[in-house]
Amino acid sequence: xxxxxxxxxxxxxxxxxxxxxxxxxxxxxxxxxxxxxxxxxxxxxxxxxxxxxxxxxxxxxxxxxxxxxxxxxxxxxxxxxxxxxxxxxxxxxxxxxxxxxxxxxxxxxxxxxxxxxxxxxxxxxxxxxxxxxxxxxxxxxxxxxxxxxxxxxxxxxxxxxxxxxxxxxxxxxxxxxxxxxxxxxxxxxxxxxxxxxxxxxxxxxxxxxxxxxxxxxxxxxxxxxxxxxxxxxxxxxxxxxxxxxxxxxxxxxxxxxxxxxxxxxxxxxxxxxxxxxxxxxxxxxxxxxxxx
Length: 292
Ligand code: C2E
Ligand code: MG
Ligand code: MG
Ligand code: MG
What we know:
Blueprint: H1 2-37, E1 40-49, E2 55-66, E3 70-72, H2 74-84, H3 87-107, E4 114-118, H4 121-124, H5 129-140, E5 147-152, H6 153-158, H7 160-172, E6 176-182, H8 189-192, E7 199-202, H9 204-208, H10 214-229, E8 233-236, H11 242-250, E9 255-256, H12 267-291
Parallel strand pairs: 2-4, 4-5, 5-6, 6-7, 7-8, 8-9
Antiparallel strand pairs: 1-2, 1-9, 2-3
The site of one magnesium ion (MG) has 4 residues, from strand 6.
Protein name: cyclic-guanylate-specific phosphodiesterase
Keywords: c-di-GMP
GO molecular function: cyclic-guanylate-specific phosphodiesterase activity
């Protein structure tokens, strides 16, 4: 009986693997169709300066509206696209679209923001990454200072010498550089000092229970203190509640991104959001002025 159960377990295991494998084959084919038929979209999530309430920038996040599967999360296809190499055409599309939309915001009179784009490991490690990126940037007419690249610790640690050199070139071109998901990658702090980055983004897994878990609180306070001492900007990701925001701001965090402030949204909605936000801010300033 036990033997039989064992057999069944193995059978089911193999069955599941077979399903997984065929799913990934069909997902791979679907990704190709999405590339060819333009099924991807970029949404933009605002980033805010806490003390002033000003919107300082946006993170571009890819969205895939699949004709049958519906919405597919980037968590479920970016990894696969990395392993098949499909991430390269996807990334080119992301960069082109983000540059074009940033230019559209420029055309509306906005020029004091950064457009943050996630850079995947494979994309970063390509030989012509820098020259291709700079060529696309120049073609778009977007000021290099408005572009921020988000890289994860893992990517930067993998080939440290190359990373330091590459980031140095990008920095000298005027781009902003941020370390994404900071705190999850075991990167050594001594290494961080050699990286010419301008910002660290505290991973949202530390923000989640920040208010109730003293260990998460300790990590977050440590990252903020270190970033400030190293004159880096520090942004908290995934801030969902006022309590989290209040805690972070008491501990000198300055930049925020999360559902508490705004969700990722298409460009058309972003424009409306910015307009309303700007108006609300003006009203607050006027009111404060009236009170003093
Ligand atoms: P990430 O770069 O760390 O992006 C932040 C993720 O947190 C986004 O998930 C965003 O929607 C989500 N988020 C923001 N605020 C909150 C919050 O308050 N609560 C919660 N629960 N989540 C929040 P998303 O859009 O699903 O993207 C997941 C990951 O996929 C990204 O993590 C990034 O690693 C990758 N990704 C997304 N777009 C791109 C892209 O264009 N290129 C590449 N290479 N990777 C991308
Ligand atoms: Mg990111
Ligand atoms: Mg992140
Ligand atoms: Mg992430």
